[in-house]
Structure formats: structure tokens, C-alpha cells
Specification:
Layout: E1 7-13, E2 16-23, E3 32-38, H1 48-57, E4 62-66, H2 84-99, E5 104-114, H3 116-127, E6 131-137, H4 142-148, H5 156-174, E7 181-183, H6 189-208, E8 220-222, H7 224-230, E9 246-251, H8 257-266, E10 271-276, H9 283-286, H10 288-305
Parallel strand pairs: 3-4, 3-5, 5-6, 6-9, 9-10
Antiparallel strand pairs: 1-2, 2-4, 7-8
Helix pairs in contact: 2-3, 4-7, 5-7
């Protein structure tokens, strides 16, 4: 079912070169529906977004998995910056790139966002009418997760302390000093569990362990990321998506599901949540018993909503 090896490509996003992998269906010839696939926070295109892009190319879609600006193989300084506005722009720039490809029907382009990119893809779809349909897997809204924690119960003092650190980093940079970075993962899975419970352990296992580690996956974020999150709400554009359709695929055990439910309540057009039995948030990144049903659901959704012009 997997497609052939990806084609490395680059495109411009607000002046920043973005690195991507283009996956082409083996057959048939002619213009095809296309999908932009975005990675989770700290991820890269070689991880879960590449897995979904490859499998969906095997179902007949042209797919484009990209590294966010400031991350992976893409350009931009400072490294490790998580800028919500730029992340949304990256999706729109990817759509622009796909409209130039001879293999793509420019009237049949959809977005797929995984984790943090789930939130960003919804915002991008709201503001870009070239997007005909949008789907998410393990939806997360990064600013909400920073402010309230993965499960929505974080003490507000935690985010206030992060804002203090971000402010100090900006002052240090202004004085010509090293502002430092925000470390994303502790040294061990046990420490990750102490900080974030089972969800924290699973994230550590995927990003830091043999399960999903990639050398370009971000282990830190620039401190500027934190105060950019303070004023961000990428769900604000969800009401603008309708009447175009939205599909969210969530794990029944995902502690992050509250964010997907909030996005669903804001939808004004056709919107559906598909629950994957037994799956956690991170299970949907790579475990075949959960990814397979998710890809089946995505295939049906995008096939129905991205018809190719005759």
C-alpha cells in the first residue's frame, strides 16, 4: 500500500525556505487530489506526518509532508521557534506550492494536521478557500496546551513561570547575552512520567526512544515561542471553515481530546469526530493497529470531498 520514496522539494513561506517530501501515487496518470500533511510540535516530516503522507499516497492522493519553518530541514532563525502565525502560513504556502504541480488538481486540495498541526490546519483552512476539506489526527491547539496542559488541568502558575522565563530570555538577547532555550524533554522516560503522566511517557518514547526518534526532531524550543503562544488561539478561525467539511480522528484514551471537542463545537459546517477505540494521543502517531483504521477513515473522507474535475 505504501508509495515509492518521496521526492525532496522546497517552497517559500513568507520568505523562509521550507523543506518538504512530495509523495506521488504509483498510478493512474492525470491530475490527482492532493493533501498537505503537517507534523506535531517538535516533529519532523520523516516521522508521523511522513507515515500518513506515504500511506495516503498509496491510496491515490498526491501528498506533501513538510518541516515547519525554523525546524527540521527548513530555514529560519532562531532555530526551534514555534510561531503559530508562521505555522499557519506554512500550510497556506504548501497549498500554493501544490497548485503549481502538474500532478495536482488545484481544485481538489485538502489539509491533514497531526497533533499541533491539527490546530494549525484548522486555522489555515478557515482563511484559505482553496482548501476544500480538512482533517486532523490527535487534534491539539498548542497555545491551549501550553496554557492549560495536555489534559486541561494545569495550574495557571506553570504558564506564568514560563512567561517569566521568556521575558528574561528576551532581555538577555537584547543585552547580547545567550537567551538559552526551553528544553522539551527530560533525560529519562521516568522523569517524563513524573512531569506528564502516561501521556508524557508516551511522548518521550516516541521522540526520544527507538520508537520514533529522528535526529532533526526538536529537543528544545526558542523561548520566544512561549510569549507568542500567550496571545494565540488558532481555533478562532474554525467557524470560517463551513460549509466545507471537517473530520477529526481522536483516540478514545487521548487526554488531549478536550481540545478536539472544543474545535468541534465551533464548527459551522459539516463536522464529524471519529473515535479510534483503545488509542491514546501518541498511539495514533505510529502504531499500525490504530494508524490503519485512521488512514481508512481519512481515505473515505477525502475521496468523498475532493472530487477531481473531469
Amino acid at each position: 500500500m505504501d508509495s515509492t520514496s518521496p521526492v525532496p522539494v522546497t517552497f517559500d513561506s513568507a520568505g523562509i525556505p521550507v523543506a518538504a517530501h512530495l509523495y506521488l501515487p504509483a498510478a493512474p496518470a492525470g491530475r490527482r487530489p492532493a493533501l498537505v500533511v503537517g507534523h506535531p510540535g517538535t516533529g519532523v516530516k520523516e516521522q508521523t506526518s511522513g507515515l500518513y503522507a506515504r500511506q495516503l499516497a498509496g491510496r491515490g492522493f498526491v501528498t506533501l509532508a513538510f518541516d515547519a519553518a525554523y525546524q527540521g530541514e527548513s530555514g529560519g532563525l532562531p532555530r526551534g521557534l514555534e510561531d503559530p502565525a508562521q505555522r499557519v502560513e506554512d500550510f497556506k504556502a504548501a497549498v500554493s506550492y501544490l497548485t503549481t504541480r502538474p500532478e495536482v488538481d488545484a481544485g481538489a486540495i485538502g489539509l491533514l494536521g497531526i497533533c499541533a498541526s491539527g490546530g494549525y490546519s484548522l486555522s489555515a483552512a478557515g482563511g484559505d478557500h482553496r482548501v476544500r476539506a480538512v482533517a486532523t489526527v490527535s487534534t491539539a491547539e498548542p497555545a491551549r496546551q501550553f496554557r492549560y496542559g495536555a489534559d486541561g488541568t494545569q495550574d495557571p502558575a506553570v504558564f506564568r513561570s514560563l512567561l517569566d522565563a521568556a521575558a528574561q530570555a528576551r532581555t538577555a538577547a537584547a543585552r547580547g547575552e545567550d537567551p538559552g532555550v526551553m528544553t522539551m524533554f527530560p533525560p529519562t522516560a521516568e522523569q517524563a512520567g513524573e512531569l506528564g503522566g502516561r501521556h508524557g511517557v508516551e511522548g518521550w518514547e516516541y521522540y526520544c526512544g527507538a520508537r520514533g526518534y529522528h535526529e532533526r526532531s526538536a529537543t528544545f524550543l526558542a523561548w520566544e515561542s512561549v510569549d507568542k503562544m500567550a496571545s494565540s488561539d488558532v481555533f478562532h478561525a474554525v467557524p470560517l471553515i463551513g460549509p466545507r467539511p471537517v473530520l477529526q480522528i481522536l483516540g478514545e484514551r487521548a487526554v488531549t481530546a478536550w481540545m478536539g471537542l472544543e474545535a468541534h463545537r465551533r464548527a459551522t459546517g459539516p463536522a464529524r469526530i471519529h473515535w479510534i477505540a483503545g488509542a491514546s494521543h501518541v498511539d495514533l502517531y505510529d502504531k499500525p493497529e490504530y494508524v490503519g483504521p485512521a488512514v481508512d477513515e481519512l481515505t473515505g473522507f477525502f475521496t468523498a470531498n475532493l472530487p477531481v474535475a473531469a
